[in-house]
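Pilot study result, target chain (74 residues):
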Amino acid sequence: MTQNQPPKSPSKLRFALFVALLVYPLVTVLQLVIFPLTAGWPMPARNLVFVPLMVGCMVWGVIPFIQTRLRRFL
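Predicted structure:
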């Protein structure tokens, strides 16, 4: 790479693959923990608990992990 060329941008396909690979076990674990505690609740109420936890884990955990530790694979 010469000095005039901008750095190569990360592959969106690989990024999506890493997100899917890390989110799947996270979703599974969160469901195993949350759903027994909310048994009998209507689905919208369960989602009101599940979704903010999932989004928080992604924003402050999964996405930064991929962008920092797995950057070289993107």
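One observation from the pilot: Residues 12-73 form one domain. A full batch analysis is planned for the follow-on phase.
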